[in-house]
Amino acid sequence: MPNGKGTQSAFIYLPPGDNHWIDIAVLIASSIPNALISRLGKHFGALYYKNIARREYSCCYAAFDKTGRLAGVILGTLDRNEAKSLDFSLKIRLLLAANVRLFSPAVFRWFACGWRNRSATKRLMRDFPKAELIVVVVHEDFKGNRIGRTLITELESFFRNNKLDFPYLILTEKSNRVANVLYEKIGAQFIKTYPYHDKLMNEWHKPLF
Ligand SMILES: CC(C)(COP(=O)(O)OP(=O)(O)OC[C@H]1O[C@@H](n2cnc3c(N)ncnc32)[C@H](O)[C@@H]1OP(=O)(O)O)[C@@H](O)C(=O)NCCC(=O)NCCS
């Protein structure tokens, strides 16, 4: 049973342990089914997100209810390029975890669209801030309890403690109405919509007030 910060509320906010990563990958995949990582299976997701979270410049908090059930998670980093880099052995483990899912039509379409738009996408992504809120999700059963906002506050404390003095990046699908409303409400600035593989993404920059 996790315990720690936030025990006065109905939820507890903690860095996840090694035993939580499969649940986290399942939660992210069910909340953001269109993302490539979500299509590559829970073992792929667990390995991928855990690799980002364990980096020195990354931060991950999970929200648990009083029974210890996973209610939400946030993952962010001060350096998105460093956090998402993969060493050789991890690449092999990810390929093995993805297995036959790599050959699905959805994955093929993702790669084909990305290849077609690669130079435009590279140009549009050139000026991205280094720090990023990579993902925030709340389980369907717990939405509307301000867990999303609280997780963002936790991530921002990490950024503040590490002296981040530029806005951080948030990317979300243009069609994701709830997330776009949330980012506008927390004071993020909308920058642009751009094509990314088979989707249209919104770029937001969020200053630390
Ligand atoms: C986006 C998400 C994380 C919000 O989590 P949440 O805990 O339900 O959100 P909160 O209770 O903290 O609400 C924060 C704000 O989000 C907005 N919001 C939340 N649910 C909403 C809904 N159903 N319709 C419209 N706006 C909504 C509100 O503006 C709310 O502000 P308010 O508290 O002033 O009303 C959650 O809906 C989710 O997991 N969505 C799927 C995953 C996703 O899209 N993640 C973002 C991309 S990485």
What does this structure look like?
By secondary structure, the chain is of the alpha+beta class. It has one domain (12-206): 3-Layer(aba) Sandwich (Aminopeptidase). 40% of the residues lie in helices and 22% in strands. The chain has 8 helices and 7 strands, in the order βααββααααβαβαββ. It has helices at residues 21-31, 42-53, 80-84, 88-98, 105-116, 118-125, 147-161, 177-185, and strands at 12-14, 58-64, 70-77, 132-138, 168-173, 189-196, 199-206. The protein has a 7-stranded mixed beta sheet, sandwiched between helices. A hairpin with a 2-residue loop joins strand 6 and strand 7 (199-206). Helix 1 crosses helix 2 and helix 2 (42-53) packs antiparallel against helix 4 (88-98). It is globular and about 45 Å long. The termini are far apart. The chain binds coenzyme A.
N-to-C SSE string, H for helix and E for strand: EHHEEHHHHEHEHEE
Mind telling me the CATH class? Answer: Alpha Beta
Using only CA atoms, what is the Rg? Answer: 17 Å
Q: What is the level-2 CATH architecture name?
A: 3-Layer(aba) Sandwich
Biggest sheet overview: 7 strands, mixed
What low-confidence regions span 5 or more consecutive residues with pLDDT below 50? none
Domain module count: 1
Number of alpha- plus pi-helical segments: 8
Shape: globular
- The CA-CA distance between the termini, in Å, is 34 Å
Structural class: alpha+beta
Task: Kindly estimate the percentage of residues that lie in beta strands according to DSSP.
Answer: 15-25%
Supply the CATH superfamily name. Answer: Gcn5-related N-acetyltransferase (GNAT)
- The chain-level mean pLDDT equals 94
CATH-defined fold name: Aminopeptidase
Helix content: 25-40%
What strand line-up does the widest sheet have?
A: 1-2-3-4-5-7-6
Number of strands: 7
